[in-house]
Amino acid sequence: MLRSSVLDELTIRSSEDAFVDQLFDCAPQYGAPLLKAGAPRAFVDLNRSCDELDPALIDGVRRRGHNPRVASGLGVIPRVVANGRAIYRGKISMLEATTRLNTYWHPYHNMLQGLLDDAVQRHGQAVLIDCHSMPHEAVQGVARSGARSPEIVLGDRFGAAAAAEVVDRVEAAFISAGFTVTRNAPFAGAYVAQAYGRPTRSQHAVQVEIDRAIYMDEGRIEPSERFADVQRTLQGVIAEIAQIGQEQMPLAAE
């Protein structure tokens, strides 16, 4: 991919949710399985539907209505990275796109659904915490005048992806640890939350976006001096959240 890209090794990572797997890697200690998206986001975006194919990038793809993510170059095979910077000089083949989906996208989502099914069978419900990071500039204008910018943005697609009781518990865990939290602005949840959030079926999905500025140097894509402290603080949050999925909560939708 690097050989076919016009970007250097650093720029091509600008959309990456860097080090998020390390921030949450203690989850199995508390009984919650951890599924890592190992494929680079610029290579294949697992938080997009497999049919969000970009005709401006992939040979042989027909235009089908208007999809704002695809139109902006952020389909399942991205055409651009952060700030609209093009990844390739030209197009890629349909074979290349299909190979990426079959090798990475489908196995990941098959595994994810299997983990959710297992959780429902074992605990009566499943709670999916979909972890991402966000550029600091994305939240700079969200806070009211004089208030702190949110460090955590929870997305439940405005209540469609998770029961209010679940989201309340997740939010309380972050707030009690000292994080500034908002919901659904500027990120309400993308494909994973939309596809897997089925609260009426006891399957809840909450997207978690973490401000990159609190744990990493965004320009160099390196952990900052605060990384270890943030990681330790998140351990208590993760322990609390992991308990939600192991309890049978009296949900209003049931």
From TrEMBL:
Q: Quick check: keyword Hydrolase in the entry? A: yes
Q: Which GO molecular function terms does the record list?
A: hydrolase activity
Tell me the Pfam families matching this sequence. Answer: FGase (PF05013)
Family matches, as InterPro entries? N-FG_amidohydro
Keywords attached to this entry: Hydrolase
- Entries under SUPFAM superfamilies matching the protein: Zn-dependent exopeptidases (SSF53187)
Question: Can you say what this protein is called?
Answer: N-formylglutamate amidohydrolase
Q: Which organism is it from?
A: Roseobacter cerasinus
Q: What is the lineage of its organism?
A: Bacteria, Pseudomonadati, Pseudomonadota, Alphaproteobacteria, Rhodobacterales
